[in-house]
Description:
Elements: H1 2-7, E1 14-17, E2 40-42, H2 43-52, H3 56-62, E3 66-70, E4 74-78, E5 81-82, E6 92-96, H4 99-110, E7 116-119, E8 123-129, E9 134-140, E10 146-150, E11 154-156, H5 164-170, E12 178-181, E13 186-193, E14 203-206, E15 216-223, E16 227-234, H6 244-252, H7 258-263, E17 273-275, E18 280-283, E19 295-297, E20 303-304, H8 312-330, H9 337-357, H10 373-391, H11 393-403, H12 415-423, H13 437-440
Parallel strand pairs: 1-7, 4-14, 11-19
Antiparallel strand pairs: 2-6, 3-6, 4-5, 8-9, 9-10, 12-18, 13-16, 13-17, 14-15, 15-16, 18-20
Helix pairs in contact: 2-8, 8-9, 10-11
Bound molecules: flavin-adenine dinucleotide.
Amino acid sequence: MLAAAALAPFCDRVTLVERDVLPHGPHPRKGLPQARHGHVLWSGGAKAIERLVPGVTERWPAAGAVRVPLTSGMVAYTPHGWFRRRQGPTPHHLIACGRDLLDWHVRDLVLRDHRIRLLEGTEAVGLTGAARRITGVRTRSPGGSSQGVRADLVVDAGGRGSRALHWLASLGITGIRERSVDSALAYASRVFRAPDHADGFPVVNVQAAHGTAPGQAAALIPIEDGRRLVSLSGTRGGEPTSRAQDFVPFTVRLRHPLVGRLIERAAALTEVSTSRSTANGRRYFEQARQWPEGLVVLGDAVATHNPVYGQGMSVAALAACLLRDDVRRAGVFGTRLGRRVQRAVARPADAAWASATALDVFYPGASEQAPTPTDRMIRRLSGRLARTAAASSYVANALTQVTTMEAGTTRLLWPDMLLALACGPLRRPLAGPPLTAAESRLLEPVGPARAD
Ligand SMILES: Cc1cc2nc3c(=O)[nH]c(=O)nc-3n(C[C@H](O)[C@H](O)[C@H](O)COP(=O)(O)OP(=O)(O)OC[C@H]3O[C@@H](n4cnc5c(N)ncnc54)[C@H](O)[C@@H]3O)c2cc1C
């Protein structure tokens, strides 16, 4: 949808080939199984989507999405302690709601553009053309018949299951490097009814400890209609199960039982949904020796990231903006457009990759390549950064700028940050979760906190 919105102003017609029949409204669909799990949209991603789909960031809150200010609206227990919540107005935020709601409002606005034609229930099964130029896609319609869509530019935004590598290979373009860092993370999610008077309750994020396997975590996200979406995650050997009776006990056994205390007596509104589609995966299309004219690959088809960091939608949105910028400058027929866009979209994908894999490479069996000295240095630096940020709202704010994808990772190398890092944490860590008195009253009594 975002790629279509990016291209429509510069094309006579954009044809959107979608395997699913898309629901009219914020409803689940087969091709987006991850929508049952917590999806936060960082403000950098929300702003990118607004640039492509004007008006959407007003529609989300009007439909019940929660705009959570950061860091005041988040209670995060990092491996280095509780993050301090910065009070007062802050420039960064996240959008919290069900993924189906996010998508529905994007879809509803994008498909109003008469230049965009939706081919629903139609699967893209291959590329047409040759290694030098792509001329369209081969499709399979609901009845199973094969057809073709001719196009001057083909964008593969088919998500993590994209067959782009295979399709390129069939045209003779081979040897594209791939990398996987897979901690075998499993997700389990369930929706609960929030208690009365819980409006404005923060996002709660109890993260996994550093350096211990398995890594287990939980996040509670306030979503539309007075509900809370709780997502649990655990790496190999510590996976949450799909059994309803295991859900709350998992949260209580974490490094801190805060999430469990918030849901122990809450009414569950759904069954438990699970997912294992969580590996960090990177396809280095931008390094291909040969790249055809007329092809661009975006979003999860280029890189997937450990979802605990909530970056995938923002990376995809920033990539669609980069596509639009290039097409605006050089036109759809611009020479080497695909090559340039592929290089450009590698930047946000790699920024997200660096944070998503910084710890994952240390889980046993996660990567075929043992952690390198650079991996160890990044882990040490990110540890010091997180420790300092936990004690300083100034450093936390800069880190939030990067996490929310409003600034690139180079923000962390500015002189103010280097000085702060050299000094290290200047305040003691908080002894417990930074909840207000009103928030504390909403806690349900469960077992005591487990020491790290
Ligand atoms: C458990 C989990 C939790 C996550 N949490 C977050 C989060 O908190 N924040 C965040 O930003 N990201 C999160 N993500 C990542 C996010 O879901 C993805 O990064 C994002 O959806 C990628 O967008 P995309 O458009 O590239 O692919 P998708 O959203 O997967 O869309 C692909 C589309 O292509 C269609 N399609 C696929 N193959 C074909 C074909 N051959 N022909 C026609 N149509 C096809 C599909 O039906 C679908 O509509 C999470 C992911 C998971 C698995």
